[in-house]
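Chain A, query sequence.
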Amino acid sequence: MTPAGGAAPRDATDELARLAAGEIAPPGLLEEFLGRLRASQPLHNGAVEIFEAAARAAASGPLAGPLAGLPYSLKETVGIRGHEVTVGSLRMPPWHCTADAVLLQRLRAAGAVLLARGNVPELAMLGETDNLRFGRSNNPLDPALTCGGSSGGDAVLVAAGAAAFGIGTDILGSIRIPAAFCGLVGFRPASAAVDMTGSWPELQGETACWFAAGPITRSVRDARRVYEVIAGQPLPAPAPPAGRLLVPDLLPLRIADEPIAAALDAARGHLLDAGLVAESEPVADLRRVHRDMTLVLATELGPQLRACLADAAGNRFSLARECLRRLRGRPTVYGGLLPLLAIASLLRAGPGKFALAAARLRATRAAVRARLGADGLLLLPTIGLLAPPHRAMNRRSLRPGYNGLLAPTMFCNGMDLPAITVPAPAFREPRGGRIPGIMLACAPGAEARLLDAAEHLEGKLLKPRF
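Chain A, predicted structure.
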């Protein structure tokens, strides 16, 4: 999409075509991206680290591969040998990286040029990208709006044309929400598709299968190309969309902004016109899934987050003491994180209740995947609101109880479904210019079919249907 006041940069596939045709060499391409990065950074603050010298060295002779010469950004949570992962925290002792993450190794072998690291919310667990260490990232469509989170910095860099693509991670929507808010494509693969070794956090237990790494791009074809590299798995050639379309009519979702509803209706029509066959039976009890996921998250991940906030001197984190520090103007933790920690403490369950919720999630996951099968696609809004002003996203997402705005993204994580958000610029808000995101999901193994339908939808949502 186009940042306010500028022309839309090319997607990565077009940049590769320029390189292949000899229209530009990798060093020249890097300088174009560096120029946009320098222009964007003071206003949007997408990057926490810029590898200018190393990128120039890499661009002078990139390895031959499917991404050769493309400058990209990497979420700050992904390990780089000799660097630290701070997850935007002043309090958490940095995570020292002694080796490159596996997905970084694959990108380097494919010839991609690492240019920057993207900003994150503190502990990468919020829907707004802001922290006390690196500050706030702003949406290139409108700096008064949040870019979302937690892979917000990488979405900012791609939307501003400062990176050909970004790599994010996603546990509750952290790739798709910022991509949707910034008018981009964001693809969350199945958790087992991309090796997460060397990325923070190193999750175990029930939440491990919610967590995945994937691309943030300007187009679906770019997402396909980058996914093949980081997954180490080539996909079949693109084909016309086909299969069954599971429609969201009976799901208890909440859509706060009318352009999203209009885009969702148009997307359904376009996919049915393309030959997909609609099925309207309910997919799952989203309210029950949401309750079980919240309980599991609070019980399993809540204590891990608190443990991360023990400082370098070994002092345990205290919510009460941190609230006092904030009153005195000396906070050590980003304020938006405190409600999440408080809610997690309140909702933490005992062993029996936790085991029951986890078992229900596993059973529902198996049933949903079987329902989708090899040819089923689920159509949903990515999130039920357009990019809101700063601080509003935290208020709307950090509250107890079922949240129909966030249910679509959370559901796909809990079921561990590959899911992709596609922008719908035909339904751009007339005044503010905010862009809806439409999401498709599938069972693991049906990624090629998912991307075929997403690419078809992408082309149709560039302009009104009628």
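The mean pLDDT is 95. The chain has 15 helices and 15 strands.
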